[in-house]
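Box 3.1. Reading complex inputs
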Amino acid sequence: GQQVMQIPQYQHVQEGEDFTTYCNSSTTLSNIQWYKQRPGGHPVFLIQLVKSGEVKKQKRLTFQFGEAKKNSSLHITATQTTDVGTYFCAGNSGNTGKLIFGQGTTLQVKP
Amino acid sequence: NAGVMQNPRHLVRRRGQEARLRCSPMKGHSHVYWYRQLPEEGLKFMVYLQKENIIDESGMPKERFSAEFPKEGPSILRIQQVVRGDSAAYFCASSPGSPLHFGNGTRLTVT
């Protein structure tokens, strides 16, 4: 079945450093979505990418969708302590609407 | 517009008991998803429902687990004869199609 993999699993950075998480799917995706989950909280939708090669920005966050629509990345510039949490990518390749999540990348930011 | 409401927030059950988890989707959302999250792990898809229909239950264990989304009332995830391995956070999400809006989750502890 469809698999979505994320690396790294954990990342510790100093405040002000950049951070990137990578997402790879075993199948071509119709779209990719990114969610953030704070410790003890629930996942919150960040963004959706639909087009091949699409790049979207939200302040310090940059999201990319690969040309083959099988991979994606999230890059955070100049991390802040408020960026702490687990970032999940999620995608679906079928018509059922089922969204498969990656394992997530947990970001720790040292002040 | 109230968000996705899940109750209870915390549920403790002894082995062999039944657990019933409830989810009221956001107003106007006809799609409901259930995900399970183990500590330090990602979100595992369980089931996708629309009103009175199970669309995709490929992530549901074959035994003891069932889900419904009746015409009236909340969606229910039911776990019969719980075992310690069922201890996890169970998240419900609703959507009008995309993206997903998650509830705060039910944290099930089996003693």
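In summary: Chain B touches chain A at residues 31, 33, 35, 41-45, 48, 55-56, 58, 91, 93, 97-105 (CB under 8 Å).
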